[in-house]
Amino acid sequence: MRKKVALLGVFLALALICSYIESLIPFYFGVPGMKLGLTNIVVVLLLYFYGTKEALAVSFMRILLAGFMFGNAFSILYSLAGGLLSLFVMTLLKKTGWFHMIAVSICGGITHNLGQILVAMVVVKNYYIFGYFPFLFVGGWITGLLIGLLAQEIYTRTKHFIR
């Protein structure tokens, strides 16, 4: 039990480091709020190494801590919406056993953006903002693919050491 808690602490630290690195990268696609999603590598790995509860715990803690350190209340709200919807969808897809880690990650990237755009529509009370979603869909697909490829490679190389 102690070993597992310590490893989850390491995963949380890695996720916070990824959040910090991402906050330093001047990455702009022309769509407000679009990011690389580096922390999703950690979430996908946790989902495959341990399961939903552990991925949820680390993801939730990372969103709160990163929001207080690098963001604000709105960034926490948007991240929670995207992160929780994304994790829910990735968990369902993983449990079916029909999808490869890369496809799960792509769907996670897309639904993360969907969760955020839905919250944005409610917060700003403007439903036309959904017009951004096609761009966010493509961005989520591309970043989900890249994150999935990295996560798959890390998982393949480390699955013998972590459990």
UniProtKB/TrEMBL annotation:
One Pfam family this sequence matches: Hpre_diP_synt_I
Residue ranges crossing the lipid bilayer per the database entry: 33-51, 63-92, 98-123, 130-151
Keyword Transmembrane included in the entry's annotation: yes
Domain of life: Bacteria
InterPro entries from the UniProt entry: Hpre_diP_synt_I, Hpre_diP_synth_I
Gene3D superfamilies named in the record: 1.10.1760.20
Keywords: Membrane, Transmembrane, Transmembrane helix
Signal in keyword set: no
Annotated protein name in UniProt: Gx transporter family protein
Species assigned in the record: Roseburia lenta
